[in-house]
Design a protein that fits this description.
alpha+beta, Beta-Lactamase, 4 domains, five-stranded antiparallel β-sheet
């Protein structure tokens, strides 16, 4: 034995010479010794046999054992060389565990994963890639990255291997073509790895694109309604009533232009005939976030007052509460209501002051309207006569 043996197993030369491996308990698994002896008997040598041994202090090491049978003075003996690969095995096991963990992460990832060689040929894909494209794994592994895009997509937005080679991480949106020919909108994130391969994650954003499109359509509808509505529409900050937006209806109703009100508060332009109206509105909005058919008096640019019917709601803009309100000028309607009430009062006075009998009945001859003259001279005497007859 040499000094390397002493260092590897912790035994001194004196402790080893003359003793067997059994006595030193060097073998963690006696089957390893048996297999080595069998190979030596059959081949006369053994090369790089991996075995686990025990050191003097009981710790285990992994070693590569090579040996051969030699003869000296007609005596056969075995010459062994032993290489400690414990650290290498630990590294390999760690690497294997890391690779298994990486593989599991890829398989359980919610995004589709594609790994390609330097030419873009797929060498690894996960289950989500199968679900996304409709191809089986064995089919994908025979394909190139270009095969899942249409010619138009690649012409308008080519794969930028040049940027990837410069170390960039590229994220963009594309349409991929599935096996059945349908198109899916995806967000693609790609990067070149140190080993020269390319890795890409594809996220299906079809639903997100639908939501974005619906939101855009909704915003466009709101914008058109906001702009074209003949009613006064304005958006004010809830905290202080500062105007952030108005429509053309606001200008027609109040006389104020956008330049005259944006950035100012409702108090500054004194649009409320009585600020208590705004206070009541704000309190209602704080409790319910929505107020409908709220009547108030407003002051327009030239100082005149008008009656308005307002509906308002609290909305969030830039994480701050605002009020969006729609106000209709009901001054003419209020005047009409007053005229109708006045006309009805005049008619009632005319009917009741008349010296003629005036009445109106329905189809069943029930009185709907009758005046005081009819009541005094016809109805009351009739009722008195009827009561006298009943009492007889």
């Amino acid at each position: 034995m040499n000094g390397g043996f002493e260092k590897m197993f912790g035994y001194s030369r004196e402790e080893v010479l003359g003793r067997t491996t059994f006595e030193l308990n060097l073998w963690s698994n006696q089957n390893d010794r048996t297999e080595i002896i069998n190979q030596l008997k059959q081949k006369g040598q053994v090369r790089n046999f991996e075995a686990i041994g025990s050191k003097k202090d009981g710790t285990q090491i992994t070693a590569l054992i090579s040996g051969e049978i030699l003869t000296h003075n007609n005596i056969q003996f075995i010459l062994f060389t032993i290489k400690d690969i414990t650290e290498q095995k630990i590294f390999e096991e760690s690497l294997k565990a890391s690779e298994e963990k990486y593989k599991m992460l890829l398989e359980f990832a919610s995004d589709a994963f594609f790994q390609g060689d330097g030419e873009g040929n797929f060498i690894t894909v996960n289950d989500q890639a199968v679900n996304l494209t409709g191809y089986q794994k064995d089919e994908l592994l025979k394909m190139n990255m270009k095969n899942i895009f249409t010619k138009d997509v690649l012409d308008n937005n080519p794969l930028r291997y040049d940027r990837l080679m410069n170390g960039e991480t590229i994220k963009n949106e594309r349409y991929i073509i599935k096996k059945d020919g349908s198109l899916i909108s995806v967000e693609m994130t790609s990067k070149r790895m140190p080993d020269g391969t390319y890795q890409s994650f594809f996220r299906d954003i079809t639903n997100r694109k639908i939501i974005e499109r619906e939101l855009k359509d909704s915003e466009e509808k709101f914008r058109k309604a906001f702009i074209t509505s003949p009613d006064s529409i304005n958006i004010n900050r809830l905290s202080d009533g500062r105007y952030v937006s108005i429509n053309s209806g606001f200008t027609k109703v109040t006389g104020y232009t956008e330049e005259e009100v944006i950035g100012k508060t409702s108090a500054e332009i004194q649009i409320w005939a009585d600020v208590s109206y705004r206070n009541v509105l704000v309190e209602k909005l704080k409790s319910s976030n929505l107020v409908e058919n709220f009547e108030a008096k407003f002051r327009i640019k030239d100082g005149r007052l008008f009656d308005g019917l307002m509906s308002a709601a609290v909305i969030e803009l830039n994480s701050e509460p605002h009020i969006i309100s729609i106000t209709r000028d009901i001054s003419d309607r209020k005047k009409a209501d007053e005229l109708i009430k006045s006309s009805e009062a005049n008619l009632n006075a005319l009917i009741n002051n008349s010296n003629d009998c005036i009445w109106s009945i329905d189809k069943d001859y029930n009185y709907i309207v009758f005046n005081n003259f009819l009541l005094k001279h016809i109805l009351l005497p009739s009722i008195k006569n009827l009561l006298k007859e009943l009492m007889l």
